[in-house]
Amino acid sequence: MKTLPFLAALLCLTLLSVSCGGGEKKNQEEVKPEFNTKKTENTSKETTAVASTIPQSENKLGRRVFLLCAACHNVVKGEPHKVGPNLNGFLGQKAGMKEDFVYSEALKNKGIVWSEETIREWLTNPAGYVPGTKMAFVGVQKKEQQDALIAYLKEVTQD
Length: 159
Ligand code: HEC
What we know:
Layout: H1 3-30, H2 32-37, H3 45-50, H4 60-70, H5 105-110, H6 116-124, H7 126-129, H8 143-156
Helix pairs in contact: 4-8
Bound molecules: heme C (HEC).
Heme C binds at residues 68-69, 71-73, 83-85, 87, 90, 95-98, 103-104, 106-107, 114, 119, 123, 133-137, 140.
Region (Disordered): 22-54
InterPro entries: Cyt_c-like_dom, Cyt_c-like_dom_sf, Cyt_c_1A/1B
GO molecular function, one term: electron transfer activity
């Protein structure tokens, strides 16, 4: 008789962990960008690593498109590099110059200076513009989204 409550508890635990695990995964895969826009406290490790300051802006479309980049890039001065370098102050700089970030040889050797024209080319097709780049991102093709994103980057990556 004693084993019954124990078994019931075990079953509960198993069910709980299965549903928790499944729920969390879904969250990470599908809702990540939205997550960053909310001001709620998140305690999971994954979210803490991703959550950072994504500056507010009147440019709502630009900020929304930037959520695609935010998993890999901070923009606020002093924040750490993520998978990609912190983009603070990058406009007007030579590509591949951020300290403490290990770039691909391809990007460093391409000799790009970041301007509205070069960033547009990069955004349209990163791997096409710089074959061998480490930036695993398909790009942003719609001109309207590019315009908004570039305006947002100009606004929020200034020192
Ligand atoms: C999956 C992660 C990832 C995503 C998403 C991503 N990037 Fe990157 N980005 C990188 C990496 C990694 C590099 C370094 C590339 C290299 O060394 O070849 C990089 C480099 C860059 C650079 C060059 C920085 C420099 O110092 O020269 C710019 C600009 C940039 N990304 C902008 C963006 C923008 C804008 C978006 C969103 C539209 C974006 N990235 C999305 C990972 C990412």
